[in-house]
Records
---
Amino acid sequence: MLKKIGLSLALLAVLVLSGLTAFVFLARPKMRPAPALTATATPERLARGEYLGQGCLDCHSKRDFKRYAGPVVPPLGAHGDCFDKGIGVPGVVCPPNITPDLETGLGSWTDGEIIRAMREGVSKDGRPLFPLMPYGDLKDLSDEDALSIVAYLRTLPPVSYKAPAPKLDFPMPLIVRLIPQPLDGPVSAPSKSDAQAYGKYLTTTMGCLFCHTTADERMMPIPGREWAGDNEFRGPWGVVRSANISPHSGGLGDKTKENFIGLFRAFGAVEGEVPPGGQNTIMPWPVYNKLTDEDLGIVYDYLKAQKPIAHTVDKFPKTPRG
């Protein structure tokens, strides 16, 4: 009798576990209908979208890592390099085509569907996006700035290219379904007159926080490690780790605002091929060199006001971790 009860309980446990697994595999992420937003292409909106959208092209286009800092090469918005365990992805994720191609790009998407994917991590068909697409940070992107980016993306030449589907190691196919969170209303940008709020807005929505906050094995930020860097990236650029850009001596330290802006102007202007055996970087200096002195200055002031993290990063290690 006891043996039969034990077998019954074991069978019940298997059924429950199987049911939970099937539920998680088949469950759709939390999502809301795509917002009813229209990206009317005004000159002001297109200029703003081009200014903000360079970071999108950085991931969704090929980068030439034979040249310093891997500048993007045409076709813009398609054929982006795939990301794998070399940069911490538990599997392989390839950036999708974000050109207006009707069949393989965003041509059949509504403006609201694109904005929902950017900020809430849900594809047109309800599929959850892996958080290498930093929707956790882009949720703070204002409606107007999001519309500007979409308007700009619509101007890219359409390219027929279907990126390979993601291949994630177990249990990430389950976990990724639980990450997207829908917004609950309109999003506004802070005023530039509030330098700290606007500095937070810029550093969050332009990817600084994403790369320079230490992340765990799921690529989720570790609380208390904001701006400490030390995320390792391995690829055709070699082995690099994101810098500590907190105000500690191991980070920004005694760098002045002029020093800080000067780094972008100097490294962003470097051209030419990297010598054989020379050290390259994944940091897209040419992209951020396009920011105005005013915005870079606001970023600097914001970073200098953050908590110092005592950590020195070996930015160009001779051997990778693991």
---
Amino acid sequence: MYDFVSGCSCEEQLRKTADQLASQSAEKVIYQTSLMSALLHGVYDGTTTVARLLEKGDFGLGTFNQLDGELVAFDRQVWQLRADGSARPAHPDQLSPFAVMTFFTPEHQHHFSEKSSREEVHRVIDSVITSDNHFCALRISGDFVSVQTRTVPCQCRPYRSMPDVLGNQPTFDFRQRTGELIGFRTPQYMQGINVAGYHEHFITDDRQGGGHILDYVLAQGTLTFGAISKLVVDLPQDGDFLQANLNPDNLDEAIRSVES
């Protein structure tokens, strides 16, 4: 049977409708390997490969084994942001002790045509996704007045805790650069499991530099973002994780100190 109004067969219409319904009902999920509290304690070796992470999402952030730099992923590509401020493509068999991934399907878009601070960008997101009880994934493609970042140097056993490691963290100041900002807003009740609040990484448009964001000023660019209501966590089974103190008294203070 052929529908002369739409110009396609009923079978084609049914298939299109099914595809649309599947797209609309596709579940938005954050996949996470290990816990932030484990990373804080010094659990720096994981068994999850970059290839495995890409099976769980096309967008995300994290770190690499031995705390060897920052991980940023978007458009199904994963990059390693190194301690010298440089960036390089990650190998599929590289391992991560902590990463957060999702298939990025933003629901909202906002264009910034004037200079905006990090706080002003966050206020736009907070004004749309008003509940702090869901996750939010965000991306900015644009021109930045400045981006302050840090990257973690590769560690050797015996591992020190992350607050001790970051006492001498290298920092970088990217000026007048175009690039991509990848991030998540995580509910406050998730502190320790993840990083509560905003957690963002940056990479330049030439894919030659970047890092974990400390602060930024956006000149102009496009923000896309959306809420996510499901989290899946894979917990390690090795001795380092099983013996780690994952609930220290100063957990919130320690995480805020390493993230800011």
